[in-house]
Amino acid sequence: MADPADGRDEIWVEKYRPETLENVVGHDDIIDRIESYVERDDLPHLLFSGPAGTGKTATASAIAKELYGDDWRGNFLELNASDERGIDVVRDRIKNFARSSFGGYNYRIIFLDEADALTSDAQSALRRTMEQFSNNTRFILSCNYSSQIIDPIQSRCAVFRFTSLDDDAVAKRIEEIAAEEGIEYTDAGVDALVYAADGDMRRAINALQAAAATGEIVDEDAVFTITSTARPEEIREMVTSAIDGDFPAARAGLDELIDERGLAGGDIIDQLHRSVWDFDVDDDLAVFLMERLGEADYRISTGANERVQLEALLAAVALEVD
């Protein structure tokens, strides 16, 4: 077991990034298909879509490491389209890499992260580049929403849809890293990390490192404090008060989360959405609550006051059941 003091100056997300496809967790079907491409050395253009922290970037880099071994850095170009989203990036950096000479391999890989941030003109230029250099270059595109990728690019790629990781996969990985780092933890602490991560492995590992940095045992108190996440029972108590018609109590619970705990309105909306079906309410009230959640979320996203919208949500619930 490692000394708990060792490696604390490292970023664990990078330290424990999968080195091989076999180490990518939670997507067995996807990995099996990609491994067959790698084994045959017959990689098509790939499009990975799905939420953040589900293994898209890790899978892309693992493909390069398996194909090229120690030479992978020279044959793998990674670009982030959200930072470099103009058409010049496609015309210059991508084309220069695709044109440059290399030996020993049939093709090189260009990984374009957050490709859905590319402008439509840049995507059109990318489509033409994919056609022009298809003999010696393979593209791996990563995005949160495949609907933002133009159809001509989608039709040229094998599409893989990464879903949020299940709780068991996240918990298992957290326990493995904690054991490797010599971190003491409780089962409730692991459950809290899984809850706060919500299927995002990167968020879970970052939260584990932050909680472990206190030098104490990683328990649920440390996790909820570090991640600025409301406990599920706090959300339940706030909504239950509204359902019971006690708006002042529900509003006091909301004030506690915003003022004392520092939670953002969007985070509270997300936790409410995850918890709706855990409340002991009939289907009609659950549907009404979902409708009001959607309305509040939209208004907050367009710049409305978070507190006003959340109070209006709780008031609507209180009035609905009154």
TrEMBL record:
UniProt entry tagged with the keyword Zinc: no
AAA+ ATPase domain mapped to chain residues: 42-166
GO cellular component, one term: DNA replication factor C complex
Entry binding sites for ATP: G50, P51, A52, G53, T54, G55, K56, T57
Record-linked Pfam families: AAA, Rep_fac_C
Residues spanning the signal sequence: none
Keyword Hydrolase: no
Matches recorded under InterPro entries: AAA+_ATPase (IPR003593), ATPase_AAA_core (IPR003959), DNA_pol3_clamp-load_cplx_C (IPR008921), DNA_Rep/Repair_Clamp_Loader (IPR050238), P-loop_NTPase (IPR027417), Rep_factor-C_ssu_arc (IPR023748), Rep_factorC_C (IPR013748)
GO annotation terms (biological process): DNA repair; DNA-templated DNA replication
UniProt keywords, alphabetically: ATP-binding, DNA replication, Nucleotide-binding
Molecular functions (GO terms): ATP binding; ATP hydrolysis activity; DNA binding; DNA clamp loader activity
Gene3D superfamilies: 1.10.8.60, 1.20.272.10, P-loop containing nucleotide triphosphate hydrolases (3.40.50.300)
Quaternary organization: Heteromultimer composed of small subunits (RfcS) and large subunits (RfcL).
Role of this protein: Part of the RFC clamp loader complex which loads the PCNA sliding clamp onto DNA.
Similarity comment: family membership: Belongs to the activator 1 small subunits family. RfcS subfamily.
Name under which the protein is recorded: Replication factor C small subunit
Naturally occurring in which organism (per UniProt): Halanaeroarchaeum sulfurireducens
